[in-house]
Specification:
- The N and C termini lie far apart (37 Å).
- This protein is α/β, with parallel strands linked by helices.
- Strand 4 and strand 5 form a beta hairpin.
- The protein has a four-stranded parallel β-sheet. Strands 4-5 form a two-stranded antiparallel ribbon.
- It has three helices and six strands, in the order βαβαβββαβ.
- The protein is globular, with a radius of gyration of 13 Å.
Length: 89
């Protein structure tokens, strides 16, 4: 049996977050959901995560800006971006 991983889901839509969490669980992982960048920053400061699943459009800011800031201190944790935007960045 493989070791469990922990994901942080940063998504303001609870239905989407719930669907992502179900998929993580099906892969034998665990997750924590936050609905804002402020809460994500606080969570990342005090918890270890194996992957960030990040919505790009959040009520308190741009997920891409959060990712850039996160990368200044963490260059190895994978980041999966969720978006309804039509442009590829």
């Amino acid at each position: 049996m493989s070791e469990r991983f922990h994901a942080l889901i940063i998504e303001d839509d609870p239905d989407i977050a719930r669907l992502v969490a179900i998929q993580i669980e099906s892969l034998q992982g665990s997750s924590h959901h936050v609905g804002s960048l402020d809460k994500a920053q606080r969570y990342c400061k005090s918890n270890s995560v194996a992957i960030l699943i990040l919505d790009l459009s959040l009520p308190d800011g741009d997920g891409l800006d959060f990712c850039r800031q996160f990368r200044q201190t963490n260059t190895t944790t994978p980041v999966l971006m969720l978006t309804a935007r039509s442009d590829e960045i």
